[in-house]
Amino acid sequence: MLFPREIHMILIFLIFIRGSVADCPTECRCDVETKTVVCSGSLLLTIPDTIPSGFDVLIIRNASIRSIPKHAFRRMERLRELYIEHCDHLAFLEKFAFKGLKKLRLVSFTSCPRLNEIPKSTFSGIGNDFGVKIHFHKTPVQRVHGGAFRHAHNIRELSISGTDLALSRHAFAAITQLDFLTVSGVTVIEPQLFTNSTRFHIVHFKELNCEIPPRAFEDLAHVHQVLIQRSRISTIATDAFSGMSTVETVELYDNHIETIAARAFASIVNLGRIRIARNNIHTLQTVESLLSQAIQTRVEENTLECGCELQWMTAHEDKRLADVNYCSASGVHRTVRNYLRQSCYRTPPTTVATTERTFAVTNHDRMRGEATNPARCALSVYTIVPFVCIMLL
């Protein structure tokens, strides 16, 4: 039997549910159990102005929206997760589109084929209290404009999987605290991507097909790891990493690299370690290609285009360098050291002097007054070139 107080609470709950469903936006479905609003269909042309109180997840799927306007979510202050999926007409994100979402923890764009740019100030002013994740997945972003994330603080993850992606100057500028940055599909990198940015945990570039120009990482500070992986890099230019400071590790792993220029790593301030491993490298220009202020430098298990110009590797301060890197398929020797020994260190042929020597052989039998045996061969003088054989019969 229910008491009046319990009946009263149930009625309030039912009224709340009914009110929430009644407030559900047009072309949307509100799920009370998951606190999720799902808006979909070709008739959905704009972002809903608001969602019912108590709901904190918004999914926009298969909609006909063409843009996300400025302050689009200003009346959704408690929004925690935002998913935009399979929106074939979405082509533009306006400035400050996500400003004011202090509770936001996830923004995800998936399979939006016309969304090919992240304009300036798109994610500026999020001001979230929690670490937010921003994902672009199966969405062919082709350019990240300068200042796209300016003053977007406390980002947990930023993942951009692009197609022919160009990173403009200042693309990741003025970000304070970004834990995991993952970018793939880049074909153009402009200098000064990270101006005034700090406190990045991991910066991960993969599947690049471009050069890394001078000062690409300038001003990036307080970083645990910069990792470049599974990429085709034409040139890592002189001063490519110049201007970085307080970095624990810079790692190049499993890449095809045409050239590492002299002093590519030389100007990183307060660097813990450089690791260059399992890459195919055509040209290490000079010993200065590996020059840095790192506490530890490990260059190992790389495949190089071997030539006698690599003789500097045998005199490098890392005594193992020529033993733990290998020649490419065109080389006939395995380690760089073996190649250099057999192909580059040529010594003059050894000559053996054959001096004519004269020995005096005395017939001691005669000296003792003994008869000479006619079968015995006695020589007073024997010339030997190059050896002597005396046979006594």
Automatic annotation (TrEMBL):
Entry-linked InterPro entries: LRR_5 (IPR026906), LRR_dom_sf (IPR032675), LRR_TM_domain-containing (IPR050541)
Residues of the signal peptide: 1-22
GO cellular component: plasma membrane
Tree of life domain: Eukaryota
Keywords carried by this UniProt record: Leucine-rich repeat, Repeat, Signal
PANTHER family linked: ANTIGEN BSP, PUTATIVE-RELATED, CHAOPTIN-RELATED
Protein name as catalogued: Leucine Rich repeat-containing domain protein
UniProt organism field: Ancylostoma ceylanicum
Lineage: Eukaryota, Metazoa, Ecdysozoa, Nematoda, Chromadorea
